[in-house]
Acetylornithine aminotransferase (Halomonas alkalicola), 404 residues
Amino acid sequence: MTQTPTRADFDRYMVPNYAPQQAIPVRGEGSRLWDQAGREYIDFAGGIAVNGLGHCHPVLVKALTEQAGKLWHVSNVYTNEPALKLARSLVERTFADKVFLCSSGAEANEAALKLARRWAHDHFGEHKNRIVSFTQSFHGRTFFTVSVGGQPKYAQGFGPVPGGIVHGEYNNLDSVRDLIDDDTCAVMVEPMQGEGGVLPGDPEFLAGLRALCDAHDALLIFDEVQTGVGRSGTLYAYQQLGVTPDILTSAKSLGGGFPVGAMLASDRVASAFAFGTHGSTYGGNPLASAVALAAVEFIDTPEVLEGVKRRHALFREHLEAINDRHGVFGEIRGMGLLIGAVMSADYEGRAAEILPLAVEEGLMALVAGPNVLRMAPSLVIPEADIAEGMARLERAIARLVAGQ
Ligand SMILES: *Cc1c(COP(=O)(O)O)cnc(C)c1O
């Protein structure tokens, strides 16, 4: 019989790039998780905005297990029914005409950036290769995506960075006017910065980016890896912002916990990915596609999306009530069920101290940078779980305030 693994095995056997919590979750149902010791947690973290339907949602379990008995993988030498259905569903629900399927957010962004460069190369020539992105942005951990991302710590120490990338200031259109020119092939932006602090983009800023891109024949890429698939209260955030990108990337909630990513593009742009220009062994994998199709079809309904807006209001009410009593937050912000509570001046930079206290009280939450407590729960989290999770959060915050 094999021994039950422990947290010590992480340090012994795994590369030290993560520092996971001591508790090891072994089972999940809806918005509740249980660890090896049988302790129960309410999940406001959602696997970092991935478990859009909580844990083991019956609709996703059904899609996965039915496909598991049929066909797992065929490579892109063949196509397959789940991938075709998923691509069609995404096209019918969005601005996009074409879809590239892959397995993660970074991979979707890598595809988007390569597509933009290739499109500009083919239509205008080699010189049109500049990419504008933003400080504090996050686009994934491949070397191209950390270089485009606006947090230098993620690219430092990995050797020469790819050239042609410049960073403006988020929500500051003038900073982009100074950087963009006819050699720019793309502007990559999150409609709301996730990792950078749950910071919503001003609609005028995003509309201004669209206009600048049009003026310079550059492509507008929306990274909706974190905001996508219902999290913002619409299927994709762009649909409520009145700004349509040329390329959009999706992952995280797309598979509800099964690894999958997608890059969506208009026909005008997608044709630059001609036969042989790009690929991925797992892209369009039947298991991943079957689960993602079920997730998209379940989430893109008025019931679920209205429910996200209702729950957003509930989260806000609870957090404001907690703040009335403890004064730890300066601002509550976000869209849908991606919510940030910014620490007040007295607690500046101390968001991460809440997490271990919350775990002790039976609540999983997140941070986004040193100053923002982040919540990205299931889009269908029961209201009773919100209330109970908030009671646990308040106990954790009371202990922070008491200096325990
Ligand atoms: C998480 C995230 C990514 C990276 O996704 P991975 O699946 O970890 O590669 C990219 N962009 C944004 C906005 C994200 O939140």
In short: The pocket of pyridoxal-5'-phosphate is lined by residues 104-106, 109, 138-140, 190, 194-195, 223, 225-226, 251-252 (CB under 6 Å). The two ends are 42 Å apart (CA to CA). The chain is about 40% helix and 20% strand.
